[in-house]
Write a structure and sequence with these properties.
Blueprint lengths: L5 H5 L12 E5 L1 H10 L1 E5 L8 H17 L7 H24 L3 E6 L5 H7 L5 E5 L1 H10 L5 E4 L4 H22 L5 H15 L16 E6 L6 E5 L2 E9 L9 E6 L8 H14 L16 E4 L7
Parallel strand pairs: 9-10
Antiparallel strand pairs: 1-4, 2-8, 3-6, 4-9, 5-6, 7-8
Helix pairs in contact: 3-4, 3-7, 4-8, 7-8
Length: about 300
């Protein structure tokens, strides 16, 4: 079988994978309680998450890229059109393949006070956990977790530029190094392309979500998949431990959302976490003057209803 070194041909994956200076995780009070008590994140299978349009969106962008490639000026125009047609024919197979691949996604934001994310939780709910990326990264290493991490890309022009640049490099190589009419060679090229594009699949979202400023972690476990009741169905998930080698949770601050109207929300949260620390149920980083090492704040976003 003909094999191309795609990493040599295309270079590294075109994603911004550096850890942000701070990570923010928006959640409900019920999930917050579970995270603190279990010292884990429950990470849901990608196909069982709330936004069903994500899986469709990537393929729409790819379809536009392939359509544009048809107008690429090249000497072997007939062979190029044949290659585009073969790629399009394989898309349904790879849509199914991506669907049945066990991908679990953990979402963070780079925005500590996002109105769009607060709105998701509705009345009397919505909390934001501020995490220390260094401690959390240590916990991932300690627990032998190696997720693919990157900022989500929202601009369609950037998404298309990534796929198009890689596809054109492969097309050039395709016509320069072998018989482009070879079905075996075409199939091998296409298989490797879709394998490469699987890295981008979880990180392309519609531009309407840009205010979320999402930083995403993608896990592909071989085992330890569990199930839970989630929105009326049995959903697969994995448990990602939060504590580092010193058994410290990476939470440095908790912000109460603007829709949580109860005046005792901050005080109740502080007292509850204090009781957990004093009973030695949890350990927290000692960054702040507060006895428990966590800073408690209220969202600065004003709401008029």
């Amino acid at each position: 079988m003909i094999k191309i070194d795609f990493m040599e041909l295309l270079g590294g994956i075109q994603l911004v994978s550096d850890f942000p200076m701070e990570l923010y995780h928006y959640t409900s009070i019920q999930a917050l309680e579970s995270i603190i008590l279990s010292q884990t994140f429950w990470v849901t299978h990608s196909e069982y998450m709330n936004d069903k349009s994500e899986g469709i969106y990537f393929w729409d962008v790819l379809g536009e890229v392939i359509h544009d490639l048809r107008y690429f000026e090249i000497e072997n125009k007939d062979q190029l059109l044949s290659l585009c047609l073969q790629i399009e024919k394989r898309i349904p197979d790879y849509q199914k393949s991506y669907f049945y691949t066990d991908i679990f996604m953990l979402s963070f934001s780079c925005d500590a006070d996002s109105l769009s994310l607060w709105n998701y939780y509705g009345k009397n709910d919505g909390y934001c956990l501020h995490l220390d990326p260094l401690i959390f990264n240590d916990s991932l290493k300690k627990n032998k977790q190696n997720p693919l991490c990157a900022k989500v890309i929202y601009e369609k022009s950037e998404q298309k530029a990534i796929l198009s640049s890689e596809l054109r490099k492969v097309v050039d190589y395709f016509f320069e190094n072998s018989n482009p009419c070879s079905k075996e060679y075409q199939k091998n090229i296409i298989d490797q392309l879709f394998h490469r594009w699987a890295y981008y699949y979880p990180f392309f979202k519609h531009s309407s979500f840009i205010s979320e400023q999402e930083y995403r972690m993608v896990f592909s476990p071989d085992e330890f998949i569990k199930y839970r009741v989630y929105q009326g169905i049995m959903a697969p998930y994995i448990a990602i431990p939060l504590v580092d080698e010193n058994n410290i949770l990476p939470i440095t601050e908790i912000t109460v959302g603007p829709m949580v109207k109860h005046e005792l929300a901050l005080e109740g949260l502080r007292r509850w976490i204090t009781s957990r620390v004093e009973s030695k149920s949890i350990s927290l980083p000692e960054y702040h003057e507060e006895k428990q090492g966590i800073k408690y704040t209220k969202s600065d976003i004003p709401l008029r209803f």
